[in-house]
């Protein structure tokens, strides 16, 4: 199994969408998790870069990721938007924002 070097997280109210990528950019996993599942999943992951779009709750989640040993990176929405290939559709995995954060 490939080692995840970056996880792009699309933060939302109830469900977070994750996109894990290896160093070469290949997809390792795509997941859709609740807040509680997200905390448990990230605690089980080895230390890596966690990229999130800056929003109201992103600073809280960045602190949580830092406590778990990850390296959080907040990306301004203006820098995420150019990498989004299609409109956001919450029910359709993978999340375009999660992929964009891994690419950006």
Descriptive account of the structure:
The protein is an alpha/beta fold and 104 residues long. The protein has one domain (6-103): ATPase, nucleotide binding domain (Nucleotidyltransferase, domain 5). Helices cover 31% and strands 29% of the residues. The chain has 4 helices and 5 strands. A 5-stranded mixed β-sheet has the order 3-2-1-4-5, with helices on both faces. A hairpin with a 5-residue loop joins strand 2 (15-21) and strand 3. It is globular, with a radius of gyration of 12 Å. The chain starts with 5 loop residues before the first strand and ends with a helix.
Briefly note the structural class of the backbone.
alpha/beta
What is the overall number of helices? 4
| Sequence of secondary-structure elements | EEEHEHEHH
CATH superfamily: ATPase, nucleotide binding domain
Unreliably modeled segments: none
Task: Report the helical percentage.
Answer: 25-40%
At the fold tier of CATH, the topology name is Nucleotidyltransferase, domain 5
Strand order of the largest sheet: 3-2-1-4-5
The biggest beta sheet is recorded as: 5 strands, mixed
Distance from N terminus to C terminus (CA atoms, Å) equals 24 Å
**Domain tally:** 1
